Amino acid sequence: MGRIQLKQVTKKFGDVEVIPPLDLTIEDGEFAVFVGPSGCGKSTLLRLIAGLEDITTGQIEIDGTDATNVPPAKRGLAMVFQSYALYPHMSVRKNIAFPLRMAKMEQAEIDKRVEAAASVLNLTDYLDRRPGQLSGGQRQRVAIGRAIVREPAAFLFDEPLSNLDAALRVGMRMEISELHEKLATTMIYVTHDQVEAMTMADKIVVLQAGVIEQVGSPLELYRAPRNLFVAGFIGSPK
Ligand code: ADP
Ligand code: MG
Known about the structure:
Blueprint: E1 4-13, E2 16-26, E3 31-35, H1 42-50, E4 57-62, E5 65-66, E6 77-80, H2 92-102, H3 107-120, H4 136-148, E7 154-158, H5 166-183, E8 186-191, H6 194-200, E9 203-208, E10 211-216, H7 218-223, H8 228-234
Parallel strand pairs: 3-8, 3-9, 6-7, 7-8
Antiparallel strand pairs: 1-2, 1-4, 4-5, 9-10
Helix pairs in contact: 2-3, 2-4, 3-4
The protein binds adenosine-5'-diphosphate and magnesium ion.
Keywords: ATP-binding, Hydrolase, Nucleotide-binding, Transport
Organism: Pseudoruegeria aquimaris
Domain ABC transporter: 4-234
């Protein structure tokens, strides 16, 4: 499961409408990328889906159920933040287990899920370390591990690689794509980096000033950009 549907969603901050009426469907299992220049509303859109911001009007459906007024923790979505937000005094194991302990899950089930997540993320040998003893890429994986153990219907990433240097970014990009293959869950990934969008996405959503300029596969956008903004942004001829 993990189909997400936005129907005529708008968002105002005060009097400023940053998202005019917007319709969008993210299919189950899809890797969708929201791309566009800084300030175009990518984070806002992701936060509306996550429930971290209330929409002004419209409706959000998750797996066919109206989730518009469902609080973030009950939407079954996991947000992976830009900053790692790991607990420095806790081991990797405890950091990953944290949301499950909060939910008072049985210890045996917690152990099982943490081991499984660590295995998928190649963190098995690092479970007893503290975040300070890890590389940037490993810390990023711990943050993702903390999302995986909750077995969410979808993962939401907001520019998760922007703190990493260029070489590490390429590696992490491949790791996240692999993770999508392994877990086969819906992922929505926000970036201002067109290369990231073109290499990772099943579906690209190009945004400008809160408006969707085009939705399509990387190849569709490259071959048939709808306008000069999309062409310029994706770097395709028009
Ligand atoms: P992006 O993630 O694409 O850089 P954002 O979603 O952060 O863009 O911002 C979209 C627009 O909404 C910007 O004009 C920004 O200034 C505005 N905005 C975002 N959050 C708030 C807020 N909490 N209050 C007022 N304006 C906001
Ligand atoms: Mg942003």
